[in-house]
Amino acid sequence: MEDWFGSIQELIAISGINVLAALAIFIVGKWGARFLQHLSEKFMTRSKVEPTLVKFVGNLIYFALLTFVILAALGQIGIQTTSFIAVIGAAGLAVGLALQGSLSNFAAGVLLILFRPFKKGDYIESAGTAGTVEEIQIFTTMLVTPDNKLIIVPNSKVIGDNIVNISAKPTRRVDFVFGVGYTDDIDKVKTVIRQVLAEDSRVHQNPEVFVGVLALADSSVNFAVRAWVNAADYWSVFFDTNEKMKKRFDAEEISIPFPQRDIHLFSEKETA
Q: Which domains does the chain have, with CATH numbers?
């Protein structure tokens, strides 16, 4: 009887030690997980990572570490954790297969936030659409078109297609094509074109404006004109210059063949 009682006492003592050890593992492990979470968030914040991604990754690190801590604590008190690990693995695989598209969008969102091919306020063309970036979220990118339509594009499509960031550079080149009659003096036409552009303060003189004969078309001599402007002035200069050039050609009695084929191609989605 005394041996049986002693065995119980010994078992209780051992179990108590294991329980205390498990509690210690859980408390210390939880503190360590929280510390690593704050450390990673602090590092990402200093690296200027998007706040949404900072919080998400921080929570992901915390709960992943906490899961290992709980499994270690359960193992300390004698509970077999192999089955738990197998269940967690199977559940993770099932969730991964079910959310394959969402995970692809998430991974693409992380890449967009980390590498920053564009930022909020940039005008971009990607995934068969175009617009001003309103927000970059974990799963989607939100664009606003010039006519104020909201387009929500999955990040996987954005990252998987060519990205044209029209707002990335401070300056842009405006290309024009002006056609005049065969009887008009080429040198005079060049001079008039340069004068019109020189009078516009928005047109940069360095690099110098380029004016050259592009083609001898069926009914006109076409001039290629290339001028550099600030990116924000692109469309205002484009429309204003076309109007000014028509008025100046009329004043200088330079003929404009009719009908004139418009060979300057541009996307209506870009005009704002």
A: 2-98 (1.10.287.1260), 117-165 (2.30.30.60), 171-251 (3.30.70.100)
